[in-house]
Amino acid sequence: MLASGIRAGKTERPVAERSFKVVAVLFFGEWEVARYPTREQAEWKARELNAWAERNPRGYIQYVVRPVRQGRRGR
Fold first, then answer.
1. Which residues of 8-27 are buried (b: 16+ CB within 10 A; e: fewer)?
2. Cβ(57)–Cβ(64) under 8 Å?
3. Which helix (H) or strand (E) holds 12?
4. CB 53 within 8 A of CB 63
5. pLDDT at 44 over 50
6. What is the model's pLDDT at position 51?
7. Are 17 and 62 in contact (CB under 8 A)?
8. How far apart are CA 25 and CA 54, in angstroms?
9. Which tens digit of pLDDT belongs to each residue from 23-39?
10. Which position has the higher pLDDT, 69 or 59?
11. What value does the CA radius of gyration of the chain take, rounded to a whole number of Å?
12. pTM higher than 0.70, yes or no?
């Protein structure tokens, strides 16, 4: 049997790739900074940006990691 997802003449939908984004949370909203394919990469960048923001304060900014949601086209 092939492992390509074929079952009873029908193909299964491929698993959607998940990606993660680093978001700057500001007082009046959010701003997307970057996107990464893995959560570990995004968390590493968020930690790096938070450390930089503590050394160079210019208002209240916190960097967080959030999953990227697929739109209607991604279905």
1. eeeeeeeeeeeebbbbbeee
2. no
3. none
4. yes
5. yes
6. 94
7. no
8. 14
9. 999 888 899 999 999 99
10. 69
11. 18
12. no
